[in-house]
Design brief:
There is one protein chain. By secondary structure, this protein is of the alpha+beta class. It has a domain of 39 residues: YefM-like fold (3-Layer(aba) Sandwich). It is 30% helix and 25% strand. The protein has two helices and three strands. A three-stranded mixed β-sheet has the order 1-2-3, with no helix packed on it. The termini are far apart.
Length: 60
């Protein structure tokens, strides 16, 4: 299900982090009722955008 939250909710970073980790979709952020940005967990980002051997995490 599509998740949309207002930008003011980003103040609670631990709650947003948990929400991102539980979600299997990007979360849309609104500002003054209009779409402003999209956030997602690192693992979801890697699943969606990983190309070849490249990874976006800090694995060494």
């Amino acid at each position: 299900m599509l998740k949309i939250i207002p930008i003011r909710d980003l103040k609670d970073t631990s709650s947003i982090s948990k929400l991102c980790k539980k979600s299997d979709e990007p979360i849309f952020i609104t500002k003054n009722g209009y779409g402003d940005m999209v956030i997602m967990s690192l693992s979801l980002y890697e699943k969606k955008f990983k190309s070849g051997k490249e990874s976006f995490s800090n694995k060494k």
